[in-house]
Amino acid sequence: MPYQSDHEKERLKKNLYRRFSQHGLMRLKVRRFLYSLGWIFVIQFLQSTKRIVDILFALLIMVPLFPIYAAFFIAYAMRHPMIRTIRRVGRWCVEFDEYYWELPQNQFGDFLRQIKLYRLPVMINILKGDMSFVGPRLVSPGEMSPREKAIRKRYSAAPGLICLWQIRKAGNVHYGHEHESDAEYIDNQSIRGDFGILLRGIPAMLYGEGVDVAPDLITILNIPINNLTMMETIAWILERLEKNQGTSQICFVNADCVNIAYRQQEYLEVLNDSSLVLADGIGLKLAGKFLQQQIKQNVNGTDLFPRLCEALSGTPKRIYLLGARPEAIEGVSSWLRKHYPQVMIAGMQHGYFKPEEEAGVIREIASSQTDILFVAFGAPRQDLWIRKHLKFLNVKIAVGVGGLFDFYSGRIPRAPLWMREIGLEWIYRLYQEPLRMWKRYILGNVAFLYRVFKERFFRRS
Ligand code: UDP
């Protein structure tokens, strides 16, 4: 046995006493109990932080508007008809009354309604804990049945004044089902995340709510736009492929494209003759709003591509990728093999071929039995190219997709989702390639806004 000093022996004895004696075991139990109690407090604290933040924010809004809220309480106590309630479904499906002002039906009342002042009393619901600043959308009884499993999750949080789904809808980003956004919110809920949603809610309020019902065809600055959602576009493409309805050209139009079409008659004609012209980006959404031609959804090639690939997976339809740098086209094809291995690739060709090689490229596409040809040369070159060669390409649909291959190959990273949601993808592109993009975005956006403004106030009158 190795030599042990008295000190070490003493320590060992103490240790054994702590672990095996009646008193030692008791102490251990108490310590474990306090430890778990500590965690319970931490979890409770984290849960209640949201509540504390809600209360602080509500007070921050209510204190400066004290006279309005004092009037509310007096009117409420006197059961004045101006104070109304509406039945809502809250957390865990518990129903509550949401308060609002019944505003007079005159110009002043309309103005207050427009700036949403009638909803000021909702702060009382937040103080009471019926609602939160951020949460799933507020619904009325019967609107979203908790009996459906997928929907049930949304009721685990208090409904919010601002919700993720509404922001996506306002930003015109493809927003899928509401319960999917709700579940995403519930799963990733955090105070930091809530602040992010709150900040994103500001531009969303500016853009206004998205529209569900709008004419199928609208015109913005002389360009006919097919007012489809992402899912409607995919359905349109699949139908075209099924029914063999000749060859179709699809173009995506953003604010920059509108500027180009303004200068270039040939491009404007291509857009006018295309089978489908889709509105891409927040510029067109705002223009649509301003010109009273509301756009249903932002349908851009980059977001459409994976969804279309999913729809084509397992079908015999073949796609051809044309354009971008050789490494980008290679990157997209490996991306496709990884994510959509069942999509049939008829062929691919980078976009830096010599003019004398063009005829060969066209022959190769024509003999490849392609159904959908994606052309990524950038607008308007890709759209003019498709227009010029469409009858020789022997494809059912040809789509101009801009920088899509650069994004999916990972050559150029795409703006984070939160930036896309608030319509600021262009700022990210400007930040990535300032020398190439400053003219397009800084000068271009000003020119675009000026044209929209002119159209609204001068042409129309
Ligand atoms: N490109 C090409 N051949 C050329 C010039 C450009 O294939 O001769 C490609 C380029 O590599 C890029 C795309 O065209 O992938 C243009 O991207 P951009 O972001 O400018 O297009 P946008 O989406 O803005 O129309």
Concise description?
This protein has 21 helices and twelve strands.
Folded structure, characterized:
This protein is of the alpha/beta class. The chain has 2 domains: 45-207, no CATH class; 217-419, Rossmann fold. The chain contains 21 helices and 12 strands. It has a 6-stranded parallel β-sheet with strand order 8-7-12-11-9-10. It has a two-stranded antiparallel sheet with strand order 1-2. Strand 3, helix 6 and strand 4 form a beta-alpha-beta unit. Helix 7 (164-170) packs parallel to helix 9 (191-207), helix 11 packs across helix 12 (265-273) and helix 11 packs across helix 21. The termini are far apart. The model has no long low-confidence stretch (mean pLDDT 90). It binds uridine-5'-diphosphate. Uridine-5'-diphosphate (UDP) binds at residues 323-325, 328, 351-352, 376-379, 402-403, 405-406. The site of uridine-5'-diphosphate (UDP) has 14 residues, from helix 18.
